[in-house]
Amino acid sequence: MSISKLSTVRRADPFLERELKTYEQPLPSREYILQILEEQGKPVSFDALCVLLDIRKHELELLQRRLRAMEREAQLLRNRKGSFILPERASLIAGRIEGHPDGYGFLVPDDAGEDLFLEARQMSKALHGDRALVRVVGVDRRGRREGVIVEVIERANSRVVGRVLVEHGITLVVPENRRINQDILVTPDSRSSVRSGEVVTVEIIEQPGRHSKPIGRIVEVLGNYADPGMEIEIALRKHELPFEFSNGALAEAAQLPERLRPSDSEGRKNLRALPLVTIDGETARDFDDAVFAERQGAGWRLVVAIADVSHYVRPGTALDREASERGNSVYFPRRVIPMLPEKLSNGLCSLNPDVDRLAMVCDMSIDARGVITDYEFYAAIFRSQARLTYDQVWNWLAGTAQPESEVHRRLQPQLQALYALFKVLSEARGKRGAIDFETIETMMLFNEQGKIDNIVPVHRNDAHRVIEECMLAANVCASGFLQANRHPCLYRIHEGPTPEKLTALRNFLKEFALGLGGGDDPSASDYADLLASIEERPDAQLLQTVMLRSLRQAQYNPDNVGHFGLSYEHYTHFTSPIRRYPDLLVHRSIKAVLAGTSYLPGKWAEIGMHCSQTERRADEATRDVSNWLKCYYMRDRIGETFAGTIAAVVPFGVFVALDEVYVEGLVHVSELGEDYFQYDSTRHQMLGERTAKRYRLGDRLQVKLVKADLETGRIDFVLADG
């Protein structure tokens, strides 16, 4: 539509140009609607708003849709007369509700302001995750702002997984998500075939109200609580993880060839003669990186070849939408929920040995000090020479085993070159000041019934670190390449500690006569220096834990602020496009730069937020499964005594991590002794008022297991006698 055909009122819209680019017949922008309402200074009816905005008859329905969307997003609100008002003028705060297992909740405001406390009576109107408008009514006895729910504007829960409970002839579903603290009444037509204790999925057909519970219909019976694999089925539904591929995605995957076609190699460098190899864990099935290193004058050449997923997964396809929604693969014990269908993740894109594969390559020159002096990105075709494992490679490098096959013997010079380069890169990392926290990783060993047989530590060797340094080098080159060419992308950012956490850390360190350098703006090297200075102390693990908890979570963001922990000015993820969507976006961006074009997938900030959320969602789901399995494992050991270390101090007690068993459980504050214990968050301790008995992070304890509750996933200890 031509601007000249619009009235003066409509041409006054400050965002008219943007609307014209999006719509052939643009409506007034949301911002303009809000501006008009603000100028009126009073509630405005729909008819009056149409006059103010010069809306024509054929635009009425479209405007109503826009206004309804603005209501859903809490930009507008209707009063009892149906007139539109601005929420902030009515002293209403929009946000998302977070439930608490004890019945109360909080409103997390959209404007990132202070959370509002919602008492249990208020939470009867809503469920965890709902969006609502809340009015502040005062301050509770703990000094927190308290609110009342005026209106629930968006419901977050349409399906809920939980356990069936039958009481006095009434069938309920108790949600697995403890933040949803209302039981769901089951309709008579869907309860006849279920038994108490079974795990089901219920579809909510009536949301809760002030005087009514939520009502639902059972749509899926998963089985009994202790069935093999049930913990994963519950986690998938509880955390709303996509686990079934759409028909469109499966159809697109089925149309892909079984092997490479001659046309696939066009425009690619031929690296078939280069002895690239994959080095992964024993149980890995998707191989997305292969490496090669050789001496180059006084320095090195390092080649990192990454599976070219972007060749097969094109923007706008069903496969791309599926990968975007999932955000990443999710790795449960004994089961993987892949980001891409198996034909891609374990087939065409997996760098299996002795078959041609497509790759995006980062080809680097590194000097004798471990500094990357030059690099080049290009598309290639290559053939992995061998599928090696970390333990296998480390045994060869350490001299505890000899290669048995001719292929493996031929690869030894290259593996030695990789190891020599690793030592140089590792030394450069230390000089750069990157933080290297030592943590204990564990692995669960399972029996035939799918339950834990044992939990054992996984020891990282230098073969793991070789690959880690190679991936870091390729990732930092990818971010440098895109930054130098001014192409937007998702950086992997990691900010330093907040002022509040930094103050708390310094106060804690004072207790040990220690200090952290860097003043108000410490660097990673300040952390690294302190870690090095405490390495030999008996309380090193305690100090390291507190230092680690002072840092923020890494996330994906188009605004580059550097990576604090790795001490990089810029960093991104390039090396795992089979299992991480941000890596796939980085590949597309690099290809666009190489082709002299640009890649615009949408709003980068929103995509970054989504990918960060899917990463956290996967972490929470795998943690739930791990906790449930550990709880099941400990059921047969009730009454046993264990040695352990206080791993966390919270207002209601201390969590103890057991030696050798690698399981954590709670000693409730009421079990700490006959005293009033005060929680000190700065010192990470509980202190008895009368006895001055102290329980601090890192302290050693003897505890007895008294409870392992599968329903809550909680493991409870008491202090062992003596």
Structural summary, described in words:
- The chain has 722 residues and is an alpha+beta fold.
- It has 5 domains: 84 residues, Orthogonal Bundle (Arc Repressor Mutant, subunit A), CATH 1.10.10; 64 residues, Beta Barrel (OB fold (Dihydrolipoamide Acetyltransferase, E2P)), CATH 2.40.50.140; 67 residues, Beta Barrel (OB fold (Dihydrolipoamide Acetyltransferase, E2P)), CATH 2.40.50; 287 residues, no CATH class; 82 residues, OB fold (Dihydrolipoamide Acetyltransferase, E2P).
- It has 18 helices and 33 strands.
- It has a 5-stranded antiparallel beta sheet with strand order 5-4-3-6-7. It has a 5-stranded mixed β-barrel with strand order 8-9-10-12-11. Strands 13-20-19-16-15 form a 5-stranded mixed beta sheet.
- A hairpin with a 2-residue loop joins strand 26 and strand 27.
- Helix 12 crosses helix 13.
- The longest helix is centred in the C-terminal third of the chain and has 31 residues.
- The radius of gyration is 29 Å and the shape is globular.
- The protein starts with 7 loop residues before the first helix and ends with a strand.
